[in-house]
Specification:
Chain lengths: 248, 309
């Protein structure tokens, strides 16, 4: 695992200026474009929270998804279809699940750092929206969200062979999670038949569980553990798929 | 001698096509084995199987007596693999590429550094070690890939066209280093550059359509061809009738026409005079007689028929 973390650090260090710029620009732009307009339409959440307060966990989860996507894409799609660094990794005497976890967790570390910066930027734009005692929960659930979403992108990367297919699937996934996972719009805004389906998406469960602990103060065991269980299942599937894709 | 690599009835299929057909052979520890053959002969597939990059459809590969399928993690520790194409991460430096790979094999930092220094000095890569892989010439990247394969100190080195993209000096340095390993590490490589193969081998395996066509030391392979000579006669004008007439000489083997030059093989110099008789006065400009080389051995139809046609 440490080898993957060292590699991630080297990748950041080798493009340090763009990494730093990205760490500030992405949170700033996402905060501005998603919250300023929407908070004039949805003034407050159904249980009375101001929109900029309610949306914060969803925004951080979406940010984690946006940030982890290129890291996963590069390692599992770009390098794979171009027969680059992924091949020697699979030849090393380590399990495929170690490769999946190594790349995923090292990418997650980079994402966590930017999420923390993002929380800082958000607290400057909306000082009343970030309560310091809630930061830990937001980061924890963003990690769970990124782990699950990262595995979905790994699955997508390993399944597809053409960039056009991958991009179409990726954009569809991103837009779907943006609107259908309760990140920016609450489920009751959808028709009943749809919201009753959307709230059982594993990614939706993470945002529901996070808001439950932040705004109601109760730990939602089912909605926390189910996404984790799905993540573990996806890791097993992805490990198997990687083995198959590499013909090993 | 102890076998380092053993293949037992190993076969590889892609769809309906047989890439490797029931190969059974052993490779002695510490030897240098060259695989040669046409494109698509199955050399790279065989190397990928030996490296563990692909699994055979049937049969077993053993490294130091361990089945690569059942003892995967142990056997991988013993193998270093250099693929034909550049596969370094272009966003990491050469040193970082090598270092990361060695870390995956559980090698300590100090050991990695000392090996990188040692091999980069031997292959003259030092000036490029801290350059981004994507920005250095491919020949240098290939040398870095060799260092990467050596960094975890494998006992078996599998290399697909190890000197591809390299200049003459780099080829020389690479083979100097490989010769230092002779006796300690088993080296199996493929190459289309036959002078390199002639200079560096204990054993040559000629692969054709997934099977081993010829197998032995260079001397042994050429031994039975020593009586053969390659002849070339340049005529003022080599007409189709003349070519047919000369090809009809019973002792002429594998005749070909290149411009006005008639190429053929013959078992003794006597055949030359039989061809001269068949020329019936056609005007000759030049002629040459050469002993056979590995290249001749591989010349398509000639090699496919075996040494004696």
């Amino acid at each position: 695992m440490s080898a993957f973390i060292i590699r991630r650090w080297w990748l950041i260090r080798n493009r340090l200026m763009s990494s730093i710029a990205l760490a500030f620009i992405v949170p700033f732009i996402l905060s501005i474009v998603t919250v300023f307009g929407t908070k004039n339409i949805i003034i407050q959440s159904i249980n009375g929270q101001p929109y900029e307060v309610w949306v914060l966990p969803g925004l951080m989860m979406f940010m984690s998804a946006v940030l982890i996507t290129p890291l996963i894409y590069r390692d599992f799609f770009d390098l794979r279809i171009h027969n680059k660094a992924l091949i020697p990794m699979t030849l090393a005497p380590i399990r495929k699940s170690t490769i999946i976890l190594g790349i995923l967790f090292s990418a997650l570390l980079e994402v966590i750092v930017i999420i923390i910066i993002g929380l800082g930027i958000y607290s400057v734009i909306f000082p009343q929206a970030v309560a310091i005692e809630q930061v830990g929960f937001i980061i924890m659930y963003s990690i769970i969200f990124a782990l699950l979403y990262g595995n979905i992108i790994i699955l997508l990367s390993l399944f597809t062979e053409r960039i056009s297919v991958f991009m179409s699937a990726l954009l569809t996934t991103l837009i779907s999670i943006m609107f259908a996972c309760g990140l920016f719009i609450e489920f009751p805004f959808f028709p009943n038949s749809m919201s009753s389906v959307f709230q059982y998406f594993p990614l939706s469960m993470v945002s529901v569980a996070c808001r439950s602990i932040l705004f109601i103060g109760s730990f939602d065991t089912f909605n926390t553990l189910t996404p984790l269980a799905v993540t573990i299942i996806l890791i097993v599937i992805n490990s198997f798929l990687l083995k198959r894709k590499m013909k090993q | 001698m102890e076998a380092s690599i053993t293949l037992k009835k190993v076969g590889k299929l892609v769809g309906d096509k047989t890439i490797l057909a029931g190969l059974t052979f052993g490779i002695e520890k510490g030897s240098i084995v060259a695989l040669v053959g046409d494109n698509d002969a199955g050399k790279s597939t065989m190397l990928r199987l030996l490296a563990g990059l692909e699994n055979p459809n049937y049969g077993s590969v053993f490294l130091h007596g361990l089945d690569t399928d059942k003892r995967r993690l142990e056997t991988r520790q013993t193998v270093g693999y250099v693929p034909h194409d550049i596969d370094l991460d272009p966003w990491l430096t050469l040193e970082q590429n090598i270092h990361f790979d060695a870390l995956l094999y559980g090698i300590h930092m100090e050991k990695i550094q000392s090996r990188i220094q040692e091999y980069s000095q031997a292959l003259a890569v030092g000036d490029f070690l801290y350059s981004m892989a994507g920005r250095v010439p491919q020949g240098i990247q290939k040398k870095a890939m060799i260092i990467r394969a050596l960094a975890h100190d494998p006992t078996i080195l599998i290399m697909d066209e190890p000197t591809a993209f390299m200049d003459a000096e780099s080829r020389r340095l690479t083979w100097n280093l490989m010769r230092e390993f002779h006796g300690d590490r088993t080296i199996v490589y493929s190459s289309q550059f036959l002078p390199e193969v002639e200079a560096a081998n204990d054993r040559i395996m000629v692969i054709h359509e997934g099977s081993v066509l010829l197998d032995g030391s260079l001397d042994k392979l050429l031994e039975s061809t020593l009586e053969y000579h390659q002849f070339a006669i340049e005529f003022e004008e080599l007409t189709d009738e003349l070519f047919d007439s000369l090809s009809g000489v019973t002792t002429v083997v594998n005749p070909t026409k290149m411009g006005n030059t008639f190429h053929f093989y013959g078992r003794s110099r006597k055949v030359f005079f039989e061809v001269l008789n068949a020329c019936s006065g056609a005007l000759m400009k030049d002629l040459s007689i050469e002993k056979l080389s590995l290249q001749d051995l591989l010349d398509s139809a000639f090699a496919q028929k075996g040494l004696d046609g």
